[in-house]
Write a structure and sequence with these properties.
The protein is of the alpha+beta class. The protein is built from 4 helices and 5 strands. A hairpin with a 2-residue loop joins strand 2 and strand 3.
């Protein structure tokens, strides 16, 4: 069986929040539903931020993927970030992660994206292997972040 990708909309917010909770628990991120809901709905309502798709088996969602848009002089124009890619455990190890990456590449080309970046937890060896086999390279750079929002606290956690 092949995955089917359906664009996510506001109507999918509750399902996406449920899967985000699962993903964050799996990857060791803190999940605060109120803040996640605000960020998710803003993203779904503003096409310039990027796109989200549900990964489905037939019509049943079993995961999701989020592509955020950016711009980079280093990468010579429009770039994008796979912000989140999650498959429920029942659908891991079946090639669906690789197929999701292939799908995202094709969709990104439609937006004239020149490069795609992603972040992976160092301990997630299975995901790193999928990404490497799909052509993603570790550039021996560190992703460094600084929280500057003053209205609510930085998400705590391992990452």
């Amino acid at each position: 069986m092949e995955p089917f990708f359906r664009p996510a909309t506001d109507a999918d917010a509750e399902l996406l929040l449920q899967m985000m909770r699962e993903y964050y628990a799996y990857d060791g991120h803190v999940f605060t539903e109120r803040h996640a809901r605000i960020a998710l709905l803003a993203f779904l309502r503003e096409p310039s931020y990027g796109r989200a798709w549900l990964i489905c088996e037939n019509s049943t969602p079993v995961g999701y993927v989020v592509l955020t848009f950016g711009y980079s002089l280093e990468y010579l124009g429009r770039d994008a970030f796979i912000d989140e890619l999650y498959l429920r455990e029942s659908h891991r190890g079946r090639g669906w992660g690789r197929r999701s990456l292939d799908f995202i590449e094709e969709e990104a080309r439609k937006f004239e994206i020149r490069s795609i970046h992603l972040e992976v937890v160092r301990d997630n060896l299975a995901a790193k292997e999928v990404y490497r086999k799909s052509g993603y390279q570790d550039h021996d750079h560190y992703l460094m972040s600084k929280w500057i929002e003053r209205r609510f606290p930085k998400p705590a956690g391992n990452h």
